[in-house]
């Protein structure tokens, strides 16, 4: 098992909260992590139909038999248990429940309504380079990591990424999607999923997605919600507070894992990714992911945005820090060029908010200071989460 950066934060909550919740994409390593961190607690997976049936038939009896300290994996499969857990932790100061789940909306609605103030919530993402760098000993390129993605099984078991993602996509569509929404035409939904991968880094235009997929706008709304609920995609919201200019207010679409996106786009190797016309967008997605993972792994919600005006002038990433903004430009090129700074120089002239640490993250291996600008290697992108 590759050590996870978030481990210490999770374990530190024992004794502070009676319920610890770990959520995130399927196959991101939640089960392996909570089993390792809480090996002293009995473990029950609600993916197991027999275990689920026993809980469902007599939840009170089950808790009386097994006690008030346990791990419940994939708890969104039986959300009624949250109400029982609420009553238990309110009456028993020694209770400890570790909950995990892969479906955001199904799970978090119950968590926020039933266990508000009683649980500490953590978001486990696929592996970041910060976590992989010791294991890999720098023996990997940026594009190879973009193509392989960060799912732990690929690294722990030395799996072929193409085979892994083929099986992942099949399982996701045939199993996970149906748990969230009863979608009749799974083949059409799979097509929609592949189309979404082609819109990475672009402002979300639901009408265009509807036309490309051949469904109506209402269906697109539902399907996008499914992708976000199951941690496949996420929206990067635009920053428009305190600006006087006319700004684009549509979010940009990103995937939680670029390896999955590459598989959906039919990219079969690092070499084919290098020649792919959307290489820059996929690298941008990768850096946004690395930054978000670094915040999540430090127990913080990522304060990430982008900026685009009505003339399509854009800055790739903005990090909000206590009333100030850190502007970040993302370039896939491995060799620094002066035009990498063009957008940062322009943005400093239009911003109405104080700016700090103007930064370029690029595909090269060397980080350095260039007068007032920071040039950050992709290997150091996780440092964007540091003050």
Could you characterize the architecture of this molecule?
The protein has helices at 7-11, 30-37, 49-57, 59-66, 81-91, 104-114, 129-136, 142-148, 152-156, 161-180, 186-197, 206-213, 217-229, 258-264, 270-274, 279-296, 342-350; strands at residues 19-23, 43-45, 69-73, 96-101, 119-123, 233-236, 252-255, 304-308, 314-321, 324-331, 359-362, 368-370, 373-377. It has 387 residues and is of the alpha/beta class. It has two domains: 7-123, Rossmann fold; 129-385, no CATH class. The longest helix has 20 residues, at 161-180. The model has no long low-confidence stretch (mean pLDDT 91).
Summed up, the domain count is 2
Q: If strands are numbered along the chain, what order do they take across the biggest sheet?
A: 8-9-10-11-13-12
Q: Provide mean pLDDT, rounded.
A: 91
**What's the number of extended β-strand segments?**
13
Helix content: 40-55%
What structural class do the secondary elements suggest? alpha/beta
CA-atom Rg in angstroms = 22 Å
- Report on the biggest sheet: 6 strands, mixed
Give the low-confidence spans: none
Q: Please count the helical segments.
A: 17
* Distance linking N and C termini: 29 Å
Percent of sequence in beta strands: 15-25%
Overall shape: it is globular
Secondary-structure element string: HEHEHHEHEHEHHHHHHHEEHHHEEEHEEE
């Amino acid at each position: 098992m590759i050590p996870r950066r978030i481990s210490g934060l999770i374990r530190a909550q024992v004794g502070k909260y009676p319920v610890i919740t770990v959520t995130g994409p399927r196959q991101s390593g939640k089960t392996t992590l909570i089993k390792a961190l809480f090996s002293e607690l009995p473990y029950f997976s609600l993916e197991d139909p027999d275990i689920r049936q026993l809980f469902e038939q007599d939840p009170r009896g089950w808790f009386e038999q097994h006690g008030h300290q346990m791990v419940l994996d994939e708890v969104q499969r039986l959300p009624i248990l949250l109400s029982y857990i609420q009553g238990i932790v309110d009456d028993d100061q020694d209770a400890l429940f570790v909950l995990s789940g892969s479906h955001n909306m199904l799970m978090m609605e119950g968590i926020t309504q039933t266990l508000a103030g009683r649980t500490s919530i953590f978001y486990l993402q696929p592996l970041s380079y910060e976590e992989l760098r010791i294991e890999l000993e720098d023996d990997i390129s940026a594009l190879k990591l973009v193509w392989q993605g960060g799912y732990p099984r690929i690294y722990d078991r030395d799996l072929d990424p193409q085979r892994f993602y083929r099986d992942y996509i099949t399982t996701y569509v045939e199993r996970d999607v149906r748990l969230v929404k009863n979608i009749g035409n799974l083949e059409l939904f799979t097509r929609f999923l592949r189309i979404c991968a082609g819109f990475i880094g672009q402002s979300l235009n639901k009408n265009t997605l509807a036309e490309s997929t051949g469904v109506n706008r209402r269906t697109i709304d539902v399907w996008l919600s499914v992708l976000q609920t199951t941690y496949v995609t996420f929206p990067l919201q635009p920053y428009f507070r305190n600006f006087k200019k006319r700004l684009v207010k549509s979010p940009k679409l990103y995937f939680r894992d670029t390896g999955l996106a590459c598989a959906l786009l039919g990219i079969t190797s690092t070499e084919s990714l290098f020649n792919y016309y959307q290489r820059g967008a996929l690298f941008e997605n990768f850096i946004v992911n690395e930054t978000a993972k670094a915040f999540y792994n430090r127990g913080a919600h990522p304060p990430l945005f982008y900026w685009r005006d009505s003339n399509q002038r854009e800055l790739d990433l903005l990090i909000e820090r206590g009333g100030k903004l850190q502007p970040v430009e993302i370039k896939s090129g491995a060799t620094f060029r002066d035009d990498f700074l063009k957008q940062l120089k322009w943005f400093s002239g239009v911003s109405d908010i104080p700016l700090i640490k103007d930064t370029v993250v690029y595909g090269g291996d060397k980080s350095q200071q260039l007068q007032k600008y920071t040039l950050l290697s992709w290997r150091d992108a996780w440092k964007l989460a540091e003050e």
